[in-house]
């Protein structure tokens, strides 16, 4: 049972200080103002369903609501990601801020940063979420935060403009640009082709530049902004394939493919234990509309696949065949002794070999030409704008906007 002694290693005060110290050490918190906000707001008050130690884990999300199928529909994001997004927002005293996706804790942090002269409006579609956010904010000393029940697609249309719009749910589109004041910033975890990147959008003429894309994951938006991706659950739901667009997936055919012979191709490309290679996802996504992702059920796992990473491993997917990125056994570099892993591809179905060859070729191209290259540029344009296709890249059309990824 947690101790009331503030010096106890089990107390919220101790854990809060430890969280701030860890976030500073890893670089997620870089400003004294954000450190002070995290040190003050009692995160555990907004997550009563979680043990206090879990509430203050810097890497973990706290799920606060699930639907009848057990899927999370609301959560408090991991502190490291909240800190990164707040740093990107560059909040100052007196600013007007719109938060899309409520819960209370993040809104309290924002309220600390904009001060008593600022305005914080937090919108959510779920009355369970808004009711508890309102209650927790009042109990924690932030009754000035205005919590609004409504569909984020349009609920704030009469409330702008805002200096900062901060989205804390997984958005497939970004319909809020017209609410942004001149010089404002939108922090949006935007989903495209099965991937999510948190962008800092700033106006650049007739479009927005998407700065500092950060790998992340969020619960998908509900309501008018929801987007239905193509998903096939194979092997009794333990293996999942997802692709954003194109023809529907034939789950039965893909299940049979998984039961059939497997193609293996190895690339000769290696990664170290801590090497980032998230730009590989972006490179492959830019080359083909068959790009998607694969993952095993996080609770049950699966011995049917060997993906290169736990979540959202790159895959090429057609209605009846697929190929995905895998990783070979550990081996030691002869000179440095560093642990290295070779990237390979497993293919399934009648087109599995061709898909495996294509994915392996893209891995080799990425390693040779783009691995050490700067990340691609992203821009966001109105849906009715004429946007030339990039020489190397891809345009992702949405309902209200077009996201352009260009390698230069």
UniProtKB/TrEMBL annotation:
GO BP terms, alphabetized: methylation
Entry keywords, A to Z: Cytoplasm, Methyltransferase, S-adenosyl-L-methionine, Transferase
Domain of life: Bacteria
Localization per record: Cytoplasm
UniProt-listed Enzyme Commission number(s): 2.1.1.77
InterPro entries: Methyltran_FxLD, PCMT, SAM-dependent_MTases_sf
Pfam family, one: PCMT
GO molecular function, one term: protein-L-isoaspartate (D-aspartate) O-methyltransferase activity
Gene Ontology cellular-component terms listed: cytoplasm
Main localisation: cytoplasm
Similarity comment: Belongs to the methyltransferase superfamily. L-isoaspartyl/D-aspartyl protein methyltransferase family.
Protein name from the UniProt record: Protein-L-isoaspartate O-methyltransferase
Annotated source species: Nonomuraea rubra
Lineage: Bacteria, Bacillati, Actinomycetota, Actinomycetes, Streptosporangiales
């Amino acid at each position: 049972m947690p101790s009331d002694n503030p010096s106890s290693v089990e107390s919220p005060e101790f854990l809060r200080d430890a969280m701030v110290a860890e976030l500073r050490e890893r670089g997620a918190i870089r400003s004294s103002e954000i450190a002070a906000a995290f040190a003050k707001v009692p995160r555990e008050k907004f997550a009563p369903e979680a043990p206090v130690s879990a509430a203050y884990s810097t890497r973990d999300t706290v799920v606060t609501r699930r639907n009848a199928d057990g899927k999370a529909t609301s959560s408090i994001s991991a502190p490291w990601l909240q800190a990164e997004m707040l740093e990107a927002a560059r909040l100052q005293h007196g600013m007007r801020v719109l938060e899309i996706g409520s819960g209370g804790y993040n809104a309290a942090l924002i309220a600390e940063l904009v001060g008593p002269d600022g305005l914080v409006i937090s919108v959510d579609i779920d009355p369970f979420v808004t009711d508890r956010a309102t209650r927790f904010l009042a109990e924690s000393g932030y009754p000035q935060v205005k919590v609004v029940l409504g569909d984020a697609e349009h609920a704030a249309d009469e409330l702008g403009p805002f200096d900062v719009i901060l989205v804390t749910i997984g958005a497939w589109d970004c319909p809020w640009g017209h609410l942004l004041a001149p010089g404002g910033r939108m922090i949006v975890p935007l989903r495209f082709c099965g991937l999510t990147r948190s962008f800092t959008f700033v106006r650049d003429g007739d479009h927005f530049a998407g700065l500092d894309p950060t790998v992340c994951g969020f619960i998908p938006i509900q309501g008018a902004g929801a987007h239905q991706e193509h998903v096939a659950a194979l092997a009794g739901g333990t293996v999942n394939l997802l692709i954003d667009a194109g023809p529907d997936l034939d789950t039965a055919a893909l299940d049979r493919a998984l039961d059939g012979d497997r193609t293996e191709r190895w690339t000769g490309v290696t990664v170290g234990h801590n090497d980032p290679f998230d730009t590989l996802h972006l490179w492959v996504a830019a080359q083909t509309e068959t790009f998607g992702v694969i993952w095993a059920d996080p609770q049950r796992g699966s011995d049917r696949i060997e993906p290169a990473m736990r979540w959202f491993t790159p895959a090429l997917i057609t209605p009846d065949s697929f190929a995905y990125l895998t990783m070979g056994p550990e081996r030691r570099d002869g000179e440095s002794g560093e642990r290295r892993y070779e990237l390979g591809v497993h293919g399934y179905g009648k087109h599995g070999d061709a898909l495996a060859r294509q994915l392996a070729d893209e891995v080799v191209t990425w390693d040779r030409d783009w691995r050490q290259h700067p990340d691609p540029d992203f821009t966001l344009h109105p849906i009715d704008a004429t946007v030339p296709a990039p020489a190397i890249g891809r345009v992702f059309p949405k309902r209200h906007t077009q996201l352009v990824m260009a390698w230069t």
